[in-house]
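haha ok so turns out i had the wrong file open the whole time. this is the CORRECT one, sorry everyone. sequence first:
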Amino acid sequence: MPEPEDDSPEKKSRRKLVVIAVVALLAIGAALFYWHSTFTEDTDDAQVDGDLYQVSSRIAGQVIKVYVEDNQEVKAGDLLAEIDPKDFQVALEQAQANLANAEAAAIQASVNVPITSITSSTSISTTGSDVQSAQAAIAQSQKQVAAAQARVAQAQANAKKSDLDVERYGPLVEKDVISKQQYDAAVAAAAANRASVLEAESTLIAQQEAVRQSQQKLSQARSTALEAVKNGPSQVKAQEARARAADAAVKEAQARVDQAKLNLSYTRILAPTTGIVNKKNVNVGANLSVGQDLMTIIPLSNLWVTANFKETQLEHMHEGQKVEIKVDALGGKKFHGVVKQIGGATGSRLSLFPPENATGNYVKVVQRIPVRIDFTNLDQENSDHKLRPGYSVVPIVSVK
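then structure:
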């Protein structure tokens, strides 16, 4: 015979509690589902985006050192690679020598302005002639000083170049790429150029002494001068124009020096921002051209999410709403953000060939709108820098 069911009050009470618990759980689940479907919008068509910094060469040259590898973290200003600076150093020294020549010419032109003023006067006294002679002597001496300075600069540049030639020829003669006679000729040329530097410096000292003596004579002549000599206006204006042209030449030469300094600085390729090295495409010995891409720097401090929501999800969505972002690659780790912008057109309308629906076979397809979501606490939530551009995410927007 079947045993009679236990209908004790305790048994009935337990069954009632179980029923109540099940009903409560169903109610909570229904409430959560209702809240989620009513007050949030989410999509799995979303990815992390970020800026990409292309690092390229601003000059042409041969790479002598590379300091980074793919996926290496770098800071803004870190040295990434170096280009051989020797040619650019020589170019700078040549530009500086040309600047010295231009400055010497400008000094000569500026000195000739008062000389022209004196020589064009219609009448001078005996003491005035003495002043004129002394000024002419100073002008000539200063001209010679300027010329001597230019020769010193040119001789120093030549000596530097010949020393570099000897340095370059040394390994070549050891490898029999060039003859010993060629190497000896380069050594002799370097010695001759160094001797020319000494000779030019001696001449400069002598000319500077001549200037000092001429200045003493001018001081004596001025002390006894009885009349001032007036200039011929047209001659003075012409000489002033030449002086202005000489000053312009100095500015041009200075600009070339500045450009040479810039080119020399470009031999050190620096990181434009803090981030991760990617797509490194440079090695030691490579000959670079101007504008050639070397690598990409991906900054990890300026990331955002591009989420493609269905147009039916945008009714209550607007800028400023809070977003919870789950990252698939990080085991569903949550980040926090805010709706920054809602796209101005659908993805299909922005495609290269937008759809044309002029035929009678039109089928309505729900379109997707790109929405930009900015992270609000990225520095702390991504302190380990594991979040990278391209990761798939699930953003959940609170639209309540």
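The chain has six helices and 15 strands.
again sry for the mixup
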